[in-house]
Amino acid sequence: MRGAEGGGVRLVMRKADYLDESMYGWAAGRHGFLIKKCADVKVSDLEIADTGGDGVYVGGELHAPSTNIELLRVVTLSAYRNGLSITSARDVVVSDCRFLNTSGTAPQAGVGKSDFLGICHGLADP
């Protein structure tokens, strides 16, 4: 998926509504962009705001990780859990991205990497 070169394309969710218990039950899985068990995905020039979960989630399963994923010039603002979560993936490139003002529920990180499936190879902490 590619937004307009130079930015200007925004995906805005309703984080304030998700926090209102009279409207929605608690959940941290309302991700802005979910990449699960996918291969050869490129996301660029996109802003994702006010999610009810992660701004971008990249994952899969033990024998079906996401592979060959590229995030380029992606900005997340005010994600509820993490700006970017990577749980089971191979060959992920994150370049010129920003993950800002993450708040709501733990871990509330800009970037969260979890290797609970033992297949997050080639991902380094900055």
Condensed summary:
With 126 residues, the chain is mostly beta strands.
Topology:
Blueprint lengths: L9 E3 L2 H4 L14 E4 L2 E11 L6 E4 L6 E12 L6 E3 L2 E7 L2 E3 L10 E3 L13
Parallel strand pairs: 1-3, 2-4, 3-5, 4-6, 5-7, 5-8, 6-9
Description of the structure:
The protein has one helix and nine strands. It is mainly β. The two termini are 26 Å apart.
Count of domain modules: 1
Shape: globular
Provide a count of the helices. 1
What gap, in angstroms, lies between the N and C termini?
Answer: 26 Å
Written as H for each helix and E for each strand, in order along the chain, the element string is EHEEEEEEEE
Weakly predicted, low-confidence segments: 116-126
Tell me the number of strands.
9
Helix content: under 10%
Rg over C-alpha atoms, rounded to the nearest angstrom: 14 Å
Beta fraction of the residues? 35-45%
Structural class: mainly beta
The biggest beta sheet is recorded as: 5 strands, parallel
